[in-house]
Amino acid sequence: MAATAVRYLRSVGAATTAEPPLPEELPRPDLRAVRDDERLPVDPAEFRRVLGNFASGVTVVTARDADGPTGFACQSFASLSLDPPLVAFMVARTSTTWPRIARAGSFCVNILGSGQGALCRGFAVSGADKFAGVAYGDAPATGSPLLDSVPAWVDCRVHAVHTGGDHLIVVGRVEALGAVEEGAEGEPLLFHRGLFGRFSR
């Protein structure tokens, strides 16, 4: 798996340490849990409808490469490991932002608050200048864009990249992190059934 991650990072121009050439992998069998004739495949629209019932937080994953700041809105973020400290996010293989994050080799996960729905929508638009009018500074460990007024942030370096169907699973090693004190600014922005919401106690 490490060899796969290194090859992927090299393919997008990310810096890797000097290593001997990797051996070619042997062909892998087409592994399936069920045969094609055992049950019908899941309808994509139904898949989205059902999984939309899972409420999640919302983040903006940012990075800085030679062309400047970049980022995208990301719902599929999770903590992964305490020792070592690892987090993960999922990104579509078709994403135009991911190759820039891969080249940077680092990223900052900006966890959005309840009043930042508009900020999230701005980073969900493809092809736009997502940082226009957005205030941000530098995350302390990697220099990735740290958006102003987010309730929490996690500054990471790319640790591993795994394939997951039409998405990639990106694992980040946490270098620094922080959060505001409890209060109104710390309330999360939630996403459920295609709509933003907020937490109530």
Short description:
The protein has 201 residues and is α+β, with helices and mostly antiparallel strands. It is built from four helices and twelve strands, in the order H-H-E-E-E-E-E-H-E-H-E-E-E-E-E-E.
Number of strands: 12
Largest sheet: 7 strands, antiparallel
Hey, roughly how much beta strand do the residues contain?
Answer: 35-45%
Write out the strand line-up for the largest beta sheet, numbering strands in chain order: 3-2-6-9-10-5-4
Q: Which fold does the CATH topology of the domain at 56-194 refer to? A: Pnp Oxidase, Chain A
List the helices and strands and how they pair.
Elements: H1 2-11, H2 44-51, E1 56-57, E2 59-65, E3 68-74, E4 77-81, E5 86-92, H3 98-104, E6 106-111, H4 117-124, E7 136-138, E8 145-147, E9 152-164, E10 167-179, E11 189-192, E12 195-198
Antiparallel strand pairs: 1-11, 2-3, 2-6, 4-5, 5-10, 6-9, 7-8, 9-10, 11-12
Describe the structure.
It is a single chain. It is built from four helices and twelve strands; from the N terminus they run ααβββββαβαββββββ. The chain has 201 residues and is of the alpha+beta class. A seven-stranded antiparallel beta sheet has the order 3-2-6-9-10-5-4, sandwiched between helices. The chain has a three-stranded antiparallel beta sheet with strand order 1-11-12, with no helix packed on it. β9 and β10 form a beta hairpin. The longest helix has 10 residues. The chain is globular and about 55 Å long. 27% of the residues are buried.
